[in-house]
Design brief:
By secondary structure, this protein is an all-beta fold. The chain has a domain of 74 residues: Nucleic acid-binding proteins (OB fold (Dihydrolipoamide Acetyltransferase, E2P), Beta Barrel). Helix content is 0%, strand content 35%. The protein is built from no helices and seven strands. The strands form two sheets. Strands 5-4-3-6-7 form a five-stranded antiparallel sheet, with no helix packed on it. The radius of gyration is 19 Å and the shape is globular. 17% of the residues are buried. It comes from Phaeocystis antarctica. Pfam families: CSD. GO terms for molecular function: nucleic acid binding. InterPro entries: CSD, CSD_CS, CSP_DNA-bd, NA-bd_OB-fold.
Length: 124
């Protein structure tokens, strides 16, 4: 029999498959490049169209702009989301892109009409 990526031994001495991102002793390992991460929406500001996600693997909260959400226009605070970590050269830190777990546009749209042009939504 070949290796099966066993990390721990469960009840009755049966090997348990290793969880992704775990090193077999319960320690978090860096995810391979291109791997999706899971996190919880820490806060979301509808009128500005951005928020922050707390990654499950620890580390700093990640910025997320509404344009990075693949299946909606906003995120719900406290909800679980999946995303890709990308490095923002301009800001010098990681951010969340290709986010899934989003929600439709909030009722009434984004913004309160205080932007340029006086209309609703972003900038108008």
């Amino acid at each position: 029999m070949g290796e099966m990526g066993v990390g721990m031994v469960g009840e009755m001495g049966m090997p348990m498959p290793q969880q992704p991102g775990m090193d077999g002793v319960g320690q978090q390992m860096p995810l391979p490049e291109g791997a999706r991460s899971i996190g919880t929406v820490r806060r979301w500001t509808n009128d500005r169209g951005f928020g922050f996600i707390a990654p499950e693997d620890g580390g700093e909260d990640l910025f997320c702009h509404f344009s990075g959400i693949e299946d909606g226009k906003c995120l719900i605070q406290g909800s679980k989301v999946e995303f890709m970590k990308t490095f923002d050269e301009r800001k010098g830190k990681e951010r969340a892109e290709q986010v899934t777990g989003g929600a439709p546009e909030p009722e009434g749209g984004f913004g309160g009409g205080g932007g340029f042009g006086g209309g609703g939504g972003f900038g108008g």
